[in-house]
Amino acid sequence: MRGVIMHSPGHVSVQDRPDPRIEKPTDAIIRLAATCICGSDLWPYRGANDVHDAPMGHEYVGYVTEVGADVRTVKVGDFVVGSFMASDNTCEICSAGYQSRCVDVVGMGGVGTQAQFARIPHADGTLVATPEPPAEDLIPSYLAASDVLGTGWFAADAAEAGPGKTVVVVGDGAVGLMGVLAAQQMGAERIIAMSRHADRQALAREFGATDIVAERGDAGVAAVRELTGGLGAHSVIEAVGTQESMMQAVRSTRAGGHVGFVGVSHGVELPGDKLFYSAVHLHGGPAPVRRYLPDLLQRIADRTIDPGKVFDLRIPLEQAAEGYRAMDQREAIKVLLTL
Ligand SMILES: [Zn+2]
To answer: Which cofactor does it need (predicted)?
Structure first.
C-alpha cells in the first residue's frame, strides 16, 4: 500500500509500506475513505519533536475489510469512524469517559493512518459504525469527528460551555474552530474567537462566533475583559499548546470559570502564583473523542453540523508533501487527503 513517511523535519514523502495485517484477534483492518494532516503533525515537521522515517497520521474514516476473531461490533463493509487513540472502552478509565487515557491505549500515530489501509487495535472499543455507508459529501465531516471535532467538543465540554455562558476560544486552527462550533451547539450565549487571520475569522463566524478579538497578550486579555464587563469569560478553550496561549487562556477566564485545554503542550510551565490567584478550573489533555463519537456521528448524519468545512484544501494522498507545506505555511487550515 501507499503511505506517508516523515523522514526528518520538513521532509515528507509517500512510499510503499507493508499492507497491515490482523495482529491480535481484537484488531480490524480498514480501507481509508479519506485521511488528513493534523496541526500536531506540524510539531515534528517543524523540528519540535524528534522524527526519523516515521509513518504519519492518526485521523481516519473508512470501510472495514477484515476483522479479527474476537471482533463483535463491526463487520466487513461497515463504514467506521475512530479516535486518534485506540481504546478498549471497557476499563475503569474508559468507563469514566476518558478513553484517550485507557489502560490499554494504543496511539494511532504509531500506526500511521495517512495511508490506503490501517490496522485498528481494540476494534470493538475504538470504532463506531454508521448505520449505512454515508453520502460522499459527508465523509469530510465524519473525518473531522475522528480528531479535530471531537477535540474541540471535549474542550468546550471541559470549559463548561453552555447557555448563558461567554466562551473565549484561543487558537484559530482547526481545533479552535471546532471549539467554536461545539460551543455554539452547546448553546453558548456569546463566543469570542481570538484570531488575526481574515479567512479564519470568517470561518469562525460561520461556525457561530459572535465576536472576534485580533489582539494577543495583555491587549488580548484587555479586549476580552472589555467585552465581559471587566470580569473575563466563563469558559475558555485553549487550542494551541504554547506558554503564551495557555496564559492567554488562564488570564481571559473569570474567577470561578473553566479552562478547557487541548493544545498539545509544548514547553508550558504555569506560574504557581498566577494560577493560585486566578481561581479558575483547569481541565484538559488528549481529548477522549470516543466518548462523543455516537452523538457527533448522529449530528453529522442529520446535517445539524457541517464540520467538514474546516478542510480548506483537498489533495490526493500522493501529494501529501504539498499538504504539509501548505499547512506549515498557513496557506491551509486543514488538509484532507483523498484516496
Ligand atoms: Zn480502557
So the answer is: Zn(2+)
